[in-house]
Amino acid sequence: MDATFTAEQDGIRRTLRELLLKRCGPEDVRAAVGTADGYDPALWEALAQQLGLPGLALPEAYGGVGCTTTELALAAEELGRTLAPSPLLATAVLCAPLVLALGTPAQRAALLPRIASGALTAALAVPGAALTTALGLTGGNHGDWAGGGRAGGVQARRDGDGWRLYGQADQVLDGHRADLLLVAARTGGFARPRTLLFLVGEGAARARLTTLDATRPQGRVQLRHVPAELLGADEAADEATDEATDVTGTLAALTALAAVGDRAAAVLAAEAVGAADRVLERTVEYVKQREQFGRAIGSFQAVQHRLADLYVQVQGARSAAYYAAWATVEGREGVGGLALAQALEALRTTASEAVQLHGGIGFTWEHEAHLYFKRAAGDELLFGPVHRLRAHAAGEARLFGGGEVRV
Questions:
Q1: Is the full-model pTM beyond 0.85?
Q2: CA neighbours within 13 Å on the CB side: how many for 94?
Q3: Tens-place pLDDT, residues 41-53
Q4: What's the structural domain count of the chain?
Q5: Where residue 265 sits, what CATH number does that domain have?
Q6: What is residue 331's DSSP assignment?
Q7: Which one of 97, 120, 143 terminates a domain?
Q8: Nearby residues of 373 by Cβ (< 8 Å), 6 or more positions away
Q9: Per-residue model confidence as pLDDT tens digits over 175-191
Q10: Rounded CA gap, 407 and 404, in Å?
């Protein structure tokens, strides 16, 4: 692994940091999350049109930049520093790779160029709170998490030449306003169950949810006889196909979800590292100014030791995140979850210490420290918790001689 960044990679970080410094301060973040969309459309347009972030890791043939997960992770690190709310995670990190991996040539040509330009936003709708299981981060990705029928979740049924979806998905990132929904649904009944992905444009009832971390807006998606298009070749899921074809179709969807999960974990780890690094910087600045007993509290050895421990933890998480991004490019699997666990732990610890070291002001809604604290708690609820990320990785690697470690 070459830990040296290229001039292009440094340029991405520098340009993005300069833009966010001007247009995404704490007050801008608060104003953006208070809107119906949950983010600033003007900032998203700048990120898409000026910097090409949605298409950063997409092939040039589809209007993308042709970079890798590493560049996307570096961009996410800068976005994490400011907690910039945007559709990037849901659209470019979760949905675009699924369309690229599973879509037909016609679907790719119709969707990916619009995603790359920022004109089309997308959201991955997974039933219940099974996002991390579906992505293969905290549990075995066997497809049963999709539910269906009386088991809840989302069910897909044939309707002539098309499909109809029934059910509900909660905690869908950007699900309240994304232009396109990628819905994981169960079909085939009890005899031939399979989990497939469907494209949904209009017809779903949506509502924005009240969340702990407002910088990650989430929505509830309700589907009642909603028309949908299978992501991929439709003949692979025809009711007349044999059992072997059923297995192939489901396996393709689950394999693609697991691969996306590993890359998404690396990007999320870098984003968490950016947030942890920024909140640590702000805390160091504050302890140099706040005085007790006639001197800055940053001069006390106990405070210095606490900050030094945080610095080491953040730097360790950064190394893990960078390695995970590199590993996904090199085709090495199973690294993203461990890097995400370390990064989430670093962010939670750093944000908690920031609140404590800021004293009374750190507990107020007016101070930005609480935004980072809620990001840390919210991400653990969505993508963790940390102990499950590590337990699943240990089980997959058979560190303890068996299968998945139960916690």
A1: yes
A2: 29
A3: 999 999 999 999 9
A4: 3
A5: 1.20.140.10
A6: T
A7: 120
A8: 351, 352, 354, 355
A9: 999 999 999 998 876 66
A10: 10
